[in-house]
């Protein structure tokens, strides 16, 4: 089920200072993006975390996103905004970095994270989409509709449920889609809160939960755009015996009859 050799993940990453990327420090970010200041795995990257300018998600510039994508390609974790809340992103093909996210969240074994893909085409490459599911995908994507379907190929075993299914959506937030598109693969997009704790609509809420839980692991990059509006989570659907089943009613109302 996992086509990528997991032996490519070489040991646990060393501790790194999280980098807050926003519309500041463009000279530094340009150096990262051009390769003049290379991003080698496990390098400590130092920007003063409190020196940041809050921006809205639509204003994330290409240089900022390229730097975050480079971290994903190196097997790192990105704290990022989605259309529903802050999430933790990682390459969904790398089992080891997915385990790092589980450790940060305190997630129960056996529970798998939802994924974000850049497009319906990418979703179809990694997950089976029946004609009925494809109709709903075309209607509601990009948007907060998560579809559960049979996995096709190439994903880490710990993002695939015991029944061989995965959960994916195409985010309505362009910057979230850009992370997946730049990586060229699905990204883990689990909510950034600790298991059993409230949803995180701000980086400060995430920091507070991690501190209270004594978590020493941290994201490698933080895309801080300020506090997000509190909106319902994504609706989750699947298909069983030829019928659409709503597993969780959320932001999108799906008719099943």
Descriptive notes:
The structure is a single chain. The chain has 257 residues and is α/β, with parallel strands linked by helices. It has a single domain (15-248), classed as DHBP synthase (Alpha-Beta Complex), CATH 3.90.870. 27% of the residues lie in helices and 18% in strands. The chain has 7 helices and 10 strands. A hairpin with a 4-residue loop joins strand 2 (78-81) and strand 3. Helix 2 (62-73) crosses helix 6. The model is unreliable at 1-17 and 19-59 (pLDDT under 50).
Fill in the keyword field for this structure.
10-stranded mixed sheet; DHBP synthase; 257 residues; disordered N terminus; alpha/beta; single chain
Brief rundown of the structure:
The chain is α/β, with parallel strands linked by helices and 257 residues long.
